[in-house]
Amino acid sequence: MDEEPPKSIYQSNYMRTVSGGINGRLVISCTPLHGMSWLYTDLYDNPEAIAPYVEHWHVTTMDNPHIGREVIEQVFKDPAMKDNVEAAIYGRFFSHQGLI
């Protein structure tokens, strides 16, 4: 899944992936733009979410060899990205508290 799906979509796809002897896996690749969403509480920061059922890897934009440093600097300078840098650049879940 490219970007965080609603939980109901995840659940529906999960059942389709593991049923019927398929024994597949779901992969969610996303920037955590929704803050402390169900993805954070249910899969990322949940002591019951353990391998092999749930695994996660944390990478940042700086880890991407195809994005130059000058592009990253543009993101830091863009006023519209100010409240989103934690997620967009560092891939960190963040709280929307105080945002209007």
Q: How does the SSE layout of this entry go?
A:
Blueprint: H1 7-18, H2 38-44, H3 69-77, H4 85-88
List the defining traits of the structure above.
mainly alpha, 100 residues
Notes on the protein architecture:
The chain has helices at residues 7-18, 38-44, 69-77, 85-88. It has 100 residues and is an all-alpha fold. The chain is elongated. The two termini are 29 Å apart. The chain has four helices and no strands. The protein has one domain (7-88).
Structural class: mainly alpha
Total number of distinct structural domains? 1
> Number of DSSP strands?
0
Give Rg in angstroms: 16 Å
State the share of residues found in helices, binned by percent: 25-40%
- Uncertain runs are none
Average pLDDT taken over every residue: 90
Number of discrete helical segments: 4
Distance between the termini: 29 Å
Sheet having the most strands: none
Order of helices and strands: HHHH
What global shape is seen?
Answer: elongated
Strand proportion: under 5%
